[in-house]
Q: What sequence folds into this?
């Protein structure tokens, strides 16, 4: 692609609210964002810390289900009322929760409320599928992004440049990766959760202090209600209404959807950034099958490996 053509692809971009150089969705009150930065975690606070579209809602509902012994969020309720997004609703909404509090954040580590006495569940997802899911999320919320008519080609340029809400994917991952071995942090991947949901639920339960191994009925209920089949129903529990014709918030039951969106040129550019930015992390090994699949895609052969969950 010629340099001029690449610039033209960036002509249509999502709209954001900017806090200095940090982008947030339009409609998130600046006062809420500011108060989130100033929030001081209390002992026992439990944070679900993710980059957007890396399994956040899935993890939220798993945590909710464990805390409520397998009973799902009711169809008439909102998950965000119980596990608020602190940058969206502000610190007071978190303080108003009955302890122990569970709080969602997409902030990079340097900006996130942190305490050694709080716990942090960090979920990450490979950047290829993340970019696709983030694209559909962005165009599906016109009140936050004004990008309904945006193409994947246009969004990809923004994602690769780190010019999206909550910042650059790789910067965000690197910031939290500094806590990988911290006792108060649990690191999981979306792909691992998809491959073995039971192991993921047990790990989250143990991290929360719940003995699910000896409570088979609760474990079965958590797995059932956190499945794609269950979470694809009554989606008003997870997010506001999307315009007609847009994909659902909980969109598909598989991983590997990047192949349906990426051109070889885009795949090569993102792979190069992965090799450069992830070389010192465990994700090189954990996503080795994905990276091999991308290389096969660039050669024009092979089929991707598809999982069973996408949230």
A:
């Amino acid at each position: 692609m010629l340099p001029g053509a690449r610039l033209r692809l960036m002509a249509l971009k999502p709209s954001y609210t900017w806090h200095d150089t940090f982008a947030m969705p339009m409609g998130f009150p600046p006062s809420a964002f500011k108060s989130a930065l100033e929030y001081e975690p209390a002992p026992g606070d439990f944070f679900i810390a993710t980059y957007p579209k890396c399994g956040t809602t899935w993890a939220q509902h798993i945590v909710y289900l464990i805390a409520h012994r397998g009973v799902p969020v009711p169809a008439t309720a909102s998950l965000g009322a119980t596990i608020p997004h602190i940058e969206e609703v502000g610190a007071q909404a978190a303080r108003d929760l009955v302890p122990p509090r569970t709080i969602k954040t997409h902030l990079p580590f340097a900006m996130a409320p942190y305490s050694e006495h709080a716990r942090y569940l960090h979920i990450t997802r490979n950047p290829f599928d993340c970019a696709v899911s983030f694209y559909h999320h962005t165009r599906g919320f016109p009140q936050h992004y004004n990008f309904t008519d945006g193409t994947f080609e246009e969004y990809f340029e923004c994602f690769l440049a780190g010019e999206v809400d909550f910042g650059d994917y790789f910067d965000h991952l690197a910031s939290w990766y500094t806590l990988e071995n911290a006792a108060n942090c649990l690191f999981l991947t979306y792909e691992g959760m998809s491959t073995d949901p039971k192991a993921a639920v047990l790990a989250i339960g143990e991290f929360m202090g719940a003995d699910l191994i000896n409570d088979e009925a609760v474990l079965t209920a958590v797995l059932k209600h956190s499945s794609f089949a269950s979470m694809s129903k009554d989606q008003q529990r997870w997010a506001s209404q999307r315009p007609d014709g847009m994909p659902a918030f909980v969109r598909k039951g598989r991983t590997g959807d990047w192949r349906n969106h990426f051109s070889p040129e885009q795949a090569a550019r993102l792979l190069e950034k992965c090799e450069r930015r992830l070389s010192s992390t465990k994700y090189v090994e954990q996503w080795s099958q994905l990276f091999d699949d991308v290389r096969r895609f660039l050669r024009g052969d092979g089929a991707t490996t598809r999982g069973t969950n996408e949230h």
Observations:
- Residues 186 and 207 are 7 Å apart (CA to CA).
- The domain at 3-253 is CATH 3.40.50.300 (Rossmann fold).
